[in-house]
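User: Teach me something about this protein's shape.
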Amino acid sequence: MSKLTPDQRNTLYLAEAERTGIHKPILAALYEAHDRTSLADGETGLGVSPANRISLEQVNTFAGQVQFAANTIRSLTDNLVSTGWRGIDLWNAEQGRYTDRFLQRVAAGYAPPPSDTTAARLEAANPTVLIQAYLEDLGVDVQGEKQPTNLAYLDDALLALVDRIPAYYTNQSYQREALLEALRLWRKFDTRQAVLASLNLLPANNAALEEVDEVALDRVLVQFIQQVSRNYGGLPHQREALIRLTQLWRQLDSREAAIGSLANNRSPEGNLRIIDPALIAFVQRIPPNYRGRAEERNALVEGFRVWRKLDSRPAALVALGIDPNILTSGTADAATLANTARQLDRELLNFVQRIPGVYREGPDHREALIRMVQLWRNLTTRDQTIRSLLEDVRQMQRARPNSPEAAPRPSPLVLPRRPDRWTPKNLQIYAPIVQNGSFTWAEATHGGTRLPPNQATVDAIVRIARLAQQARERIGRPLQVTSWYRPPDVNARVGGVSNSRHIVGDAIDFYCDGLTGDQIYWFLDPWWPGGLGRYENFPYLSHIDARGYRARWLR
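Assistant: First, the predicted structure itself:
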């Protein structure tokens, strides 16, 4: 039975730390500090053993060890607080970690009181080893994160953000999730269902959680957040609740990113990127709904003007290829005006259709679309427009796939004309490499992450694509590519040999649904002109390359 990788163990640590409101590195430290008693799943544990109602079976796997170690650290912390320990005794605010005093107490072991039925016994460990392992794991977590070395600012920043949240709460689902998670951790519940049950808001008859009375829940959450500052005592689980709130409110990747984000910004004002899906959905709906009315045309012209940073409407019309004098002079005949309007509509719709593919999440593009929505919907202010877009987001989150409120399906990009010859500068990622062929540049370049550096590599990719197309037609099944062009560093990283044809670009590893590597090998062997290989350890994988001579191998 193979053991978990360090990353897999860390994922379990993170999940249990987020559930219980403890500092994750303590779990990694317990794993390093305790003896390597073998568990039923072949793993080694965190020094947790049965106690009270916790059975040996529950702690005889690595996942069980992590779960009950987290419960036990929470129980120990609560026990210390009940005996007079304060926040400053448990947590070093400047360094953003547990105090040495607390870590030494953890190392001494812990037997939970009989009334605590969720915590297990924690065996004693070497305090020096435990503290060192804790600091090392903490260092790994903050490595590369943009957060100050001195975190004394954190508590004030958390409370400053929390105090202003009621004014910025707009009933968005991500905001509700952030506050609910903070309430869960603050009150030491393990699940969302347990929180809702404690509030008498759990849907009856095991109905879906989506059926929670959100109006009542929002009222409770806002009341809770309004009381946080006066009840904050600097205890670790309280701090973790507010850090988690910040992470979810700001939709950040990690706890450490949330801490860093508070160094210079304590405002709960939402990032406008939340409305980007609504903006893109809005422009996708324009072409089928455009009727050429004056207000629609005006909205698109103004959006184009802001997008292109032009000073005036006439300048925007000129950029669209329209003579503004025709529309403003009053001397043009009806036919000329109609033709000009049709030309303008064509150019505006071409602009709109390109937006989803070229939109960048910066203020220039976003403000252009906000202005477009404002005029299209005849709204008075920018704030009204943003509120309407937030409502769009809320509806999109709940919409059934084919309902009018759901985001429109994205349209495939329109590729430019196929070049006469492929070069490193004109590759079209979704285009077939060979005219009317099955293999694309996306497959050859690992989704565009391994672009060929020179013409020789491009030509090698084209060479093997032609041969592979013939192989596909002979087999009568698609070739599912797993590896094609590999730069030397990638090839070395995945264990490829130094003379691998993947480095050249004319080798493909692939499989065919329903066929083994042996079946493919014996079928292609009489005909294939280059290298043909198969793998003992990967019986469904095959290799072909376009070297200038026949070669056959089994690895």
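Now, about its shape. The chain is about 50% helix and 5% strand. The chain has a mean pLDDT of 93. If you'd like, I can walk through any region in more detail.
User: That's plenty for now, thanks!
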